[in-house]
Design brief:
mainly alpha; about 75% helix; globular
Length: about 90
């Protein structure tokens, strides 16, 4: 995905790292790059909102425990499918 605007960090790179960003499992440098990008890029921020909502639902279902790896893989695969569908429409 790309919004078509020039950014210091490419949209696709940000979206690949958004889960690491949400989980605080990212280097401080990458965290700042993602945060800066999301502050200036509406389409990525919209996608981030979707990802954050999915993560919130999983957290409610699984409590403080990490989601089972099989669930995580299934959710990530479905999100990727949705991203591809959105890109086709745009």
């Amino acid at each position: 995905m790309s919004c078509g605007q020039p950014h210091e960090t490419d949209c696709s790179e940000v979206l690949e790292k958004v889960y690491l960003y949400l989980d605080n499992e990212i280097t401080p440098t990458d965290y700042e790059k993602v945060r800066h990008h999301l502050d200036e890029c509406g389409p990525c921020l919209k996608q981030y909102g979707l990802d954050q909502a999915v993560k919130s639902v999983v957290h409610r279902c699984c409590g403080d425990d990490r989601a089972p790896e099989t669930l995580r893989v299934q959710v990530m695969a479905r999100i990727q499918q949705v991203r591809v569908e959105i890109e086709r429409v745009d």
